[in-house]
């Protein structure tokens, strides 16, 4: 098993990426990591953190892509020797089984589409993430790949999200909800109203509209929305979790109470993005995982673990197979 890691991607690169790789390799001796980026910087970090393993190799790149990159959709042509482009090429050439990057989302998606391509008949890939709940969690898609969509795009997101959830949750029974401002069929805007009609006809296990306040309580496996709404939702949840954590830490009576600390902190940690690592681009012909831009070593470690799991499950082949049986193309 080989995983390509974009060492230059993210706000905390290259250190957090190197340390995350070190943590992962320490616990996964049968996996290999290809560190993609500036060789001199990588070697400097390896030496600094005493990271010397036969399970790593370096793929040198002379260019990198910033989070504020001008025209990120063109980096395949403007920065062909960047760590994102080279990492994706390693997947294309089957020199890596998966890719993990905390870099520029638009650059990662556009290059993945250009180099790897889309699964047959998929109109747009979607970015999916897993939310933990007391009921086992749900997959939210899209969370940022597509801000403007059509009803048939959401239909495909729902089908791919259901297939993904089925395989990561190991169940054949998947309940899918459409994110909306109310549960009634006629609620929402034109997009959600038309999408509801498509879901009702084509999605097995469709439970109707679901309001954001109920997604953590109701038994739902997949929640579907456009990337604009999904991205706001994950950032709000992330911010609220962090705020509550800091608030509790600011109250001396709570901070000093060991019982409360032991009871509450694991819950907050469960909602910390670092614990869940990354989100896959569903619909791309390859395992491409996007990490949070501010990923720490813990987040990178978690992302590499997810990449390892998805590769072992042969998730792309399973999605392609299931799509042939389930995909409905609307006009």
Tell me the distance between the termini: 41 Å
Class of the largest domain in CATH? Alpha Beta
- Domain count: 2
The CATH architecture of the largest domain comes to 3-Layer(aba) Sandwich
- What do we call the CATH topology of the largest domain? Isopropylmalate Dehydrogenase
Helix count from the secondary structure assignment: 12
Computed structural class: alpha/beta
Runs in which pLDDT lies below 50 for 5 or more consecutive residues are none
Describe the largest sheet: 11 strands, mixed
Shape: globular
Total number of beta strands: 11
Read across the widest sheet, the strand sequence of neighbours is: 3-2-1-4-11-10-5-6-9-7-8
Task: Report on the architecture of this protein.
With 331 residues, the chain is an alpha/beta fold. The protein contains 12 helices and 11 strands. The chain has helices spanning 15-27, 39-48, 75-78, 83-92, 105-115, 151-169, 190-202, 227-250, 252-255, 258-270, 297-312, 315-326; strands at 2-6, 32-37, 56-60, 98-101, 126-131, 138-141, 176-179, 206-210, 222-224, 278-282, 288-291. The chain has an 11-stranded mixed β-sheet with strand order 3-2-1-4-11-10-5-6-9-7-8, sandwiched between helices. The model has no long low-confidence stretch (mean pLDDT 91).
